[in-house]
């Protein structure tokens, strides 16, 4: 799979475009796009492009396809795998840089603030 990277700092594929040279590469690019938490832009063999959020894929024969919501449209669109020439990770990856550790640190900080708030309220009321 040939790809063009514009984002080399993050482990996210954000900013990358995968130009599929085979069916296997197309499957791999679509699998990565399914795990991506941002918009993608598909370039189809007919020259058109589709931008939106991919929420489902079916790789099983006889009709492998993806389902996506196009940007600015609420109805879903179905795109056959065989129509996809390239996959660009064009939207912001909302999950980039977020990990369990980051979440735990955020929750610990929120709990500490809540404890301080409750303590101050208790002291104000003369309970503590």
Structure, described:
The longest helix is centred in the C-terminal third of the chain and has 26 residues, at 100-125. With 128 residues, the chain is an alpha+beta fold. The chain has two domains: 2-88, SH3 type barrels, CATH 2.30.30; 98-128. The chain has two helices and seven strands; from the N terminus they run ββαβββββα.
SSE sequence, one letter per element = EEHEEEEEH
* Helical content band: 25-40%
Regarding quaternary structure, what we see is: single chain
Task: Count the DSSP helices.
Answer: 2
Binned strand content: 25-35%
Q: What would the principal axes of the Cα set say about the shape?
A: elongated
Task: Put the structure in a nutshell.
The protein is of the alpha+beta class and 128 residues long.
Which labels suit this protein?
elongated; 128 residues; disordered N terminus; SH3 type barrels
List the helices and strands and how they pair.
Elements: E1 2-4, E2 17-19, H1 23-35, E3 40-44, E4 49-58, E5 65-70, E6 76-80, E7 84-88, H2 100-125
Antiparallel strand pairs: 1-2, 2-7, 3-4, 3-7, 4-5, 5-6
